[in-house]
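Appendix B: complex inputs.
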Amino acid sequence: MYKKNAWKKYSDKKAVMNFAEGYKDFLSFSKTERLAVKKSIELLESKGYKNIDSFKSLKANDKVYVINKNKNVAAFIIGKKPITEGLRILGAHIDSPRMDLKEHPLYESKEFALLNTHYYGGIKKYQWVTIPLALHGVVCKKDGTTVEVNIGDDENDPVLGITDLLIHLSKNQMEKTADKVIEGEKLDLTLANIPLDGDSKQAVKDNALKIIKDKYGIEEEDFLSAEIEVVPAGKARDYGLDRSMVAGYGHDDRCCVYSSLIALIDTDKPEYTSCCILVDKEEIGSVGATGAQSLFFENTIAKLLTLTGEGHPLYNARIAFENSKMLSSDVSAAYDPLYPEVSDPDNCAFFSYGLVINKYTGSRGKTGSNDAMPEFYAFIRKTFDDANVNWQSSELGKVDQGGGGTIAYILGNYNMNVIDAGIPVLSMHAPMEVISKVDLYEAYLGYKAFLKA
Ligand code: MN
Ligand code: MN
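Resulting structure:
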């Protein structure tokens, strides 16, 4: 159903509400890419998916996953048709905007120990001060072991945070433009305040290091080979008096990750091999080994072709891509009644109107976008309408208002038919983003219908 409020479809809202409960658990746990991978594998394995290493060959209906460097996953259920006839792919990203600790993060100033960060992805820096923050990540030691760090999300943990100037002394700060109110180098976390006994010039930092060593067995230099992300502390919550929405950190793009993953898990005996790929680094350009531009996906298809015995795996991986159809499962901007001026009311996404199709993204004359083929769009319209999925179409804001991108063009470069299909988000990239539960559910239904189409 095109452009209709999806809540009206459900006199009994139990299925929609229950689906959101599973999602809230997923979102609350998956604060980083590595944690999202861990949780996704848990879900996949609970439904019979196995690591590719445990297969000597693959046949129809086998369920298989491949993990790339703990930050990128591809999962498949093998179809009846050969893989070279194409796959049905759902692609979403598991990274979200945040701050990362620098290589030399720890310093002391006036008997405060602080942690220096560098932000990741597009953020409004002023939104990240004076809120409870948590640290999640890994420290890789020279002896080959990896230590998992996790502070601030257990109810018994302390939280960390970034200070802001009191209003009383903010005369100069209040005159600055929003991008300068909090500058990147001011995004440093307050870590500790108690000094270690003795007359060290950095006794508070020494004490902090002692606590870190006692708890994690790591030295200051070990931060060099670490990946520690600073994210909002706390769980995803119901939002709104009617509990129609979910508030949480990282809906972009974990709401599409979850709905895509469950759509795959709930797919049985597909004609075409169904795939859900979860990529890293979308927020910084999809680059690197675990991003959508990596050869990982192509290599993985070649591995599958070797196991299905389809021959010429590298060549056929390209043929498979060319014949594939993909939904780039990524979020879209929702119409915000407080800021109507940034949207074209006939071409924007509304809360609770269901899955959003973005034919193109980009900015200033569609630059950088994968402008989907109308032939493919027609196929998608029929797929959603036949399955009674509520869906809508949207552009990311008015012309020349700004813009954004997704991973769609990267798979498009393989000559694949790709279109963006996701969930509308309010306050996108803020520490607390909001989505509608019924949009989450319609996305799941739409993704599931697509895998069978
Ligand atoms: Mn996104
Ligand atoms: Mn984003």
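The pocket of manganese (II) ion (ligand 1) is lined by residues 93, 252-253, 282, 330-331 (CB under 6 Å).
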